[in-house]
Amino acid sequence: MSNPKSSDLHLVMFPWFAVGHMTPFLHLANSLAERGCSTTFLLPTEAIQQLQHFNLYPHLITLQSLTVPHVDGLPIGTQTASDIPLELNHLLAIALDCTRNQVEKVIHETRPKFVIYDMAHWVPEITKALGIKAIHYTVVSAASIAIVLVPARNVPEDRPITESEMLMPPSGYPSTTTVLRAHEVRSLLFVSQPFGEGITFYDRMFKAMKESDALAIRTCNETEGNFCDYIGSQHGKPVFLTGPVLPGPTKTPLEDRWCKWLSWFEQGSVLFCAFGSQSILEKDQFQELVLGFELTGLPFLVALKPPAGAATVEEALPEGFEERVKGRGVVWGGWVQQLMILDHPSVGCFVNHCGFGSMWESLLSDCQVVLVPRLGDQILNARFMAEELKVAVEVERDESGWFSKENVSKAIHSVMDKGNEFGSMLKENHRKWREKMINKELMSGYVDKFVQDMQQLVKVMV
Q1: What is the rounded average pLDDT for all residues in the chain?
Q2: Out of the domains of life, which is the source (predicted)?
């Protein structure tokens, strides 16, 4: 590890209590620590145990625990979104808001130059009184923020967003390819639902961005520059880009079980499927998905949480499935080393839900990419990958949102069959984008510029 450069910047980071938010915040803290910045990182005690191995600079990054209070309706002991189904996240938001006094105490005691946050819309109320700058950090795609969370999307407070309002991109939206289907619009209407006590998700996020001193986004100009410019113009805020801020290669080897199993198969022949830490399918859709993998005739490793109502993935598998795919297919209900699996030479296709972390991991891998988005920003990320960058294919669904085993197999074959012109086009586009994204100097330059932007913000706003 190189010695950090000198810096007098101290920050407090306070991400939403979900792995998909806390992890990229911590990766950013590591990148800032390389440049000498110190960080007090606020997160639940349970999350410290889960994430402390990602802290590469413990002498500069202090992981400080918050006591997450119990909220009626949440299981006892809930601390992060991984502990609950998605439909209870609105109650976890209440718990997050209840940590305000603890957060304010830390800010008063540490007196940072900046507080970097996302869901805690009340952070600017604390920082403004102390002359501290508040930076709202977005860890989802700029494309999804541009269509859902800009002022042009604003509606009167006394009514929710309608489907017709959500169907059409806001005025000036910098894309001609985003077309939302009915079931996708219904999914995106979560923004008008409660997310905390007396506040909707949309109002929470809109206030969090509006009251900030600057907006930061985990993306880069090469992929989403037009969307970032649009967000800045709509909100009237400076927009700082950090790049994807992904961790470097790990020295931990791939688990022996997967290394041995994958090595049985030809280079680039194995399908790998993962849907993130919170995605839980209904049992019938879970079965349809794995039957789609069976239908391909290709070797596959599917790593998913058990579907709704099932204690294990094994008990939810279709009758006779395990016997039919024995030797070429595995469905696994536990955690796997996703990045290392993607890096294995036998893996040739990554089937994922297009959460923003998986989106970047897709771009940086050598694998063909098949997308099965289900919720909110995943849908917009997938449309961006498939229609803007043209590096992936999305599994077709009917108007209800259902996808069939035949369409799963069809999408996979469209990118895996040798000689398929469409798959070859996606592969070549993917290769070009990957070459840009793995440029270490380019990615490091984003964090350098982010530090400069923060320093300039202090000078301009003193």
Answers
A1: 91
A2: Eukaryota
The 10s digit of each residue's pLDDT in 4-63 is 455 679 999 999 999 889 999 999 999 999 999 999 999 999 999 989 989 999 999 999
Token output for 257: 């079980």
When pLDDT is averaged across residues 85-103 and rounded to a whole number, the result is 95
Q: What is the pTM of this model?
A: 0.88
As beta bridge partners, residue 370 has 351, 393
Residue 341 Rama label (left phi>0; alpha psi -120 to 50; beta): alpha
SS3 (DSSP) at 239: strand
Reading the block at residue 69, the tokens are 């209070």
User: 456: which residues sit within 8 A by CB, 6+ positions away?
Assistant: none
Note whether 15 and 21 are within 8 A (CB): yes
| CA-based torsion, 170, 171, 174, 176: positive or negative | positive
Residue 12 DSSP label: E
pLDDT at 201 over 70: yes
Residue 223 confidence (pLDDT): 87
- The DSSP letter of residue 400 is T
Residue type at 177 in one-letter notation: T
- With contact defined as beta carbons under 8 Å apart, do 69 and 99 qualify? yes
CA–CA separation, 80 and 16 (whole Å): 9
Residue linked to tokens 């996703």: 338
**Contact predicate 395/372, CB 8 Å:** yes
β-partners of residue 240 are 216
**What's the N-to-C CA distance of the chain in angstroms?**
35
Give the integer Cα–Cα distance in Å for 360 and 219. 9
Q: pLDDT tens digits, residue range 233-268?
A: 999 999 999 998 987 766 778 999 999 999 999 999
C-alpha angle 216/217/219, rounded to 5°?
145
| Encoded tokens for 95 | 């718990």
Q: What would the two tokens of residue 2 be?
A: 């190189």
Contact status, residue 148 vs residue 180, Cβ threshold 8 Å: no
Residue 70 and residue 77: Cα distance in Å, rounded? Answer: 7
pLDDT category of residue 110 using cuts at 50, 70 and 90: very high
Token pair for 138 = 């977005």
Count the Cβ atoms, other than its own, within 10 Å of residue 58: 10
Handedness of CA 362, 340, 414, 287 (dihedral sign): negative
Are β-strands 270-274 and 300-303 bridged in parallel, bridged antiparallel, or unpaired? parallel
Indicate the Cα dihedral angle 70, 62, 129, 105, nearest 10°.
Answer: 50
The length of the chain, given as a count of residues = 462
Cα separation of 138 and 381, whole Å?
14
Phi, psi of 306 (to 5 degrees): -55, 145
